[in-house]
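Checklist before submission:
- one chain only
- standard amino acids only
- sequence pasted in full

Submission:
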Amino acid sequence: MDEIELLRRVRADQAGPSRAAVERGRDALLERASGAAGGRARGRASRLRLGARSSWGLGAFIATGAAVVALVVTIGLSSGGRPVVSPAGQTPAVDAGEAVRASEFLDDAARQVEESGDPVLAPGEFLKVESRTLHGQQLAPDGAADGRPDWYYSSIREFYIPADRSAEWVTRLVGVSYEHAADADAALVAADIEAFQAREAEMYEGAGLDPAYERAAGGQFVSAQFSPQEVARIEWSQEPAVALQQVYDLTGVNVGREMGALSTIGDLLQPGVVDAATGAVLLEAAALIPGIRLLDAPVDFSGRQGVAIAVDEGTGYEHQLVFDSETGLPMGSRAIGMPVDGTGGTVLWESSGYSSAVVGFAP
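Returned file contents:
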């Protein structure tokens, strides 16, 4: 039994936080968010060190940090003349007030995650995680010259994680849909989708698997970018600055490292990946990402209202981590781009949302 699994079992034997405690944490978090919207700065001028606290299969079906960076390089969005302060990540500067608001919001979010605790599973039960993803795609060879996707691929996938994490996990594809942009050539999009489906089918056929259904001991799915065992072997530091460096190492990219780090943290915060205590440290680590800021306006995330933090690396493309306005807990992430065709506004490139529940069976 590794250290993280031991921590999970110890926490499972402890009484969970009271409903009142969780609601107090949620209210404090949402008050912080509304304060940012009103432009109110907090008393602390800065926080150099956050208080220390005593993909895996899911990430495989969601954009990893490396994939986000690759997309930025591919679409080549313009910088728009914004100032740059980070040679490695090309991160635009944010003023001190924005940095403080983002830092304090994430500190509150970390406490909310830790106080909400981990799901407690009895023998034979499963943590069911529903992952909803959307990815913008582009037709070759235009390389998204206008900074807009030509079509979207969206999917709903379920994961069933057993109480004994070394036992057999299950994932199944519940639904898939394709949608082309209004101004895209319908015939070219149809051909591109067909080629996409052929490549996906070839990958699964080569592995002798059904793309809609996988079973694997310990969650070792064929599509995994990193396994549960790999994540469990990481001895996450309780110091946020060190944990952030561990995230950079796990992401494995040097260009676009800030957006890559926030994307990886979003993947790790999905239900069932890391325990609540580690999730809290990762949120504190996110507060140390250069250029991190709290968005003033609420965001609509798959029909639910959320509060988002974001990193924009000066490319006209930003990554957001979204928190549920009702619970104060992370509910997904998305990537937003600024079109380069002069039309203004933003365009959604990717999103991944998740929800979870304890169930008594797996299909």
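Reviewer check: The longest helix spans residues 186-207.
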